[in-house]
Write a structure and sequence with these properties.
alpha/beta, FAD/NAD(P)-binding domain, 3 domains, 8-stranded mixed beta sheet, 6-stranded mixed beta sheet, 27 strands
Length: 542
Amino acid sequence: MTSGPDLGVERLSAPVLIAGGGLVGLSTAMFLAQHGIRSTAIERLPGASPLPRAAHFHLRTLELFRLAGIEEEVKAQSEREFLPEGAIVMMDTLAGRKLADIIASLNEGVEELSPCRRLFVSQPGLEPILRARAEQAGATVLPGYEVAGVSQDDDGVTVTANDADSGRQVEMRGQYLVGADGAHSAVRELLGIPFDGRGVFSNSITIYFTADLRPQMAGKPLSVVYINNSTFGGFFRLDRSCESGFLVVNTMGDPSSVDAADAASDTSESRLIELVRIGAGVPGLPVRIDGLARWRATADVARSYQQGRIFLAGDAAHLMPPNGGFGGNTGIHDAHNLAWKLAHVLQGHAAPALLATYDSERRPVGRFTVEQAYSRYVTRTAPYLGQDTAQPVAPDVDIELGYLYHSAAISSDGDEHPVHDDPRRTRARAGSRAPHVWIRSGGRRVSTIDLAGSAFTVLTAARGSAWCEAARVVAGDHPGLELHAHPIDDREAHFADRYAISESGAVLIRPDGFVAWKAESMLPDPVDAIGRALRRALTAST
């Protein structure tokens, strides 16, 4: 950081600026760092999130953490904080009756779909891991600053930020800006990008508390407990000790009445203690209130994820109720989709037109996921909103692993496809996440996820060696671009069947693990085929 000549305004620069140094902002910095791109994140808070918000991290997110080299560290932190696995259920109180099984076991059946497993970890536990990994590779976090102004020109973006305490001003210059600054995004507001969707449908609260709930919960494999009774509707999440946690309250009284939507009308300490006791089903339970968050349940998507050199990600781009845990995961997937594209453009491997595919790929996924979170909110907590206006609830794995991309950078078969499908059926369809298959490679057992995780990759079956040679030829036409090729001659793994190709077929996988192109069998000119598919993936042009 250097001092400028006028008024002592300090200036700094980085190829990518990030507004927001929380979950999504730090993930963006980490993913950019994987590709060798330096970034600076501007974070309003002076330190990590002070409240122990626990997040449910999904299969795809853990795959991304695995590829970033932090999966084991995240798992260890999760195990320190929470019991692993567990179920998601609905009860009238913690001490009372079970009303329904929502997810019987957190990771039932995931082995065939992913090398990873779902888990819970608090944001104060996770964010230091993300930050350390990003900083190791050259990222910078500027804490305690708020974005005050944004402007852009043909060459880059200028951000003005103020220190919340001293008022000191910093001017930052970057080639691109990612607005990952949350639900009340200053970047989105400065750009004038509106939200579209259902708007606000509840004034909700999250009560952070300490109370001994071991008699009700200790030893029970329960990750989240939804509560529905005559007083309120919401859910509990407790830490490993069952002596602290939080209670979300979305509705009060009769959940079939629109009057139930204002849970924040009385937030006196005595009322908060009463709600914890009622939810626990233990009158007179000693309760200490550690914090309170008031928030509005919404289901909205930004009208655009991009304006020139500026992009929106996470809650700045989409807002959804917490049911299903999709918000943070979707934001992390936004960051991963955008990071490799920014990196390849900055390194001169891809055309700037590629960046427009961030909006065309991620915004439909955002809309779908927002509606799925809303559907879960309605069916689990707020039937007064009317289930006839909500989408049918899709299986969780479809949302986690089965979302499909459609853009100018993907060589699709021309058929119309939905925005999601069962990941068991996508079978390396262009625009889908490349399926997980355990194979033997170099004398060890690895997942195809590990082979195709950070660079362009050609995977081919047993009789597809010509594709590997073609990939080497094509790589020579793109100096500095990583293009790997792996022949998979492991018939016991049924790789060709899982990828829906013949023994001479091949797929081209992007650095984000999504299939850019597929040939079901050998083509007359494999060099030309791979070359055209790679050019399209890099230029978003045929």
